Amino acid sequence: MPASVPPPATASAAPPDPAVNERMLVEIWSDLVCPWCYLGKRRLERALEGFEHADRVDVVWRSFELEPDAPKVAESRRTLLLSRYGMTAEQAAERDAQMTALAEAEGLEYRPDLAQLGNTFDAHRVLHAARAAGVQGQAKERLLRGYFTEGRKLTDADTLVELAADAGLDPDAARAALADDGLADEVRGDEREAAAIGITGVPFFVLNRRYAVSGAQSSDILLQALQRTWAETIEGAAPPAS
């Protein structure tokens, strides 16, 4: 079940009180090169399919960099696993096979052999621009698919603009986002908020600023979290005695 969390400290672009208009806010801190984050996204979507109030749920993707010091030029993910994390080739292959199987079970195609790891800060800036344009969910999906399925380099400006345009963001707005200090501040604001909440791993779901679910939990657990949060924060039901 979801754990109670204190309200995050002053969010960047802090949302209004969702209970005022009987809508539920779901915020997810995640990174774009995190395989568990793609799994978590798909599992949340499946949970929402079974949630009767899904049309009154607002999903916001928050920024979190697993490797904030990652190089600006992408490198082979397999090479980094072997050099930076000291894995053997066999260990890396086993890890990749496990994640590929988990992804397949959710209808996702992972191609770890194509993945190029690098700094994701600019990609997060593009996601903030996409949010302002009302296409953040589409942009999140396109960037994740570009990285995990197509082996696209999320450190490359032209690639980010192309993928964001595929998702419906104006290409000029996407390119401007890459040099927008205001959007950079929004990314850092998300990351400061993550630290204030105590987030150390992603994906991390915060529901109506009341409950948190850590990790790529099953769609059933996420559905339970949605139902409980709705009952307590929108309908005003008392929490269970336990």
Structure characterization notes:
This protein starts with a strand and ends in a 9-residue tail after the last helix. Helix 4 runs parallel beside helix 6 (157-166), helix 4 (121-132) crosses helix 7 (171-177) and helix 5 packs across helix 6. The chain contains 9 helices and 7 strands; from the N terminus they run E-E-H-E-E-H-H-E-H-H-H-H-H-E-E-H. The protein has 242 residues and is α+β, with helices and mostly antiparallel strands. The model is unreliable at 6-16 (pLDDT under 50). The chain has one domain: Glutaredoxin. It has helices at 35-49, 77-83, 89-105, 121-132, 136-148, 157-166, 171-177, 181-197, 219-233; strands at 3-4, 24-30, 57-63, 75-76, 116-117, 204-207, 211-214. Helices cover 47% and strands 12% of the residues. It has a 5-stranded mixed beta sheet with strand order 1-7-6-2-3. Strands 4-5 form a two-stranded antiparallel sheet.
* CATH uppermost class: Alpha Beta
Structural classification: alpha+beta
List the strand order in the largest sheet.
1-7-6-2-3
Q: SSE order, as H and E? A: EEHEEHHEHHHHHEEH
| Radius of gyration computed on alpha carbons | 18 Å
The global form is: globular
Number of strands: 7
Number of helices: 9
CATH architecture: 3-Layer(aba) Sandwich
Full CATH superfamily name: Glutaredoxin
The CATH topology comes to Glutaredoxin
Number of domains: 1
User: What is the helix content?
Assistant: 40-55%
What composes the largest sheet? 5 strands, mixed
What multimeric state do the chains show? single chain
> Which residues sit in consecutive blocks of at least 5 with pLDDT less than 50?
6-16
How far apart the termini lie comes to 11 Å
Q: Report the β-strand fraction as a percent range.
A: 5-15%
Report the mean per-residue pLDDT as an integer: 90
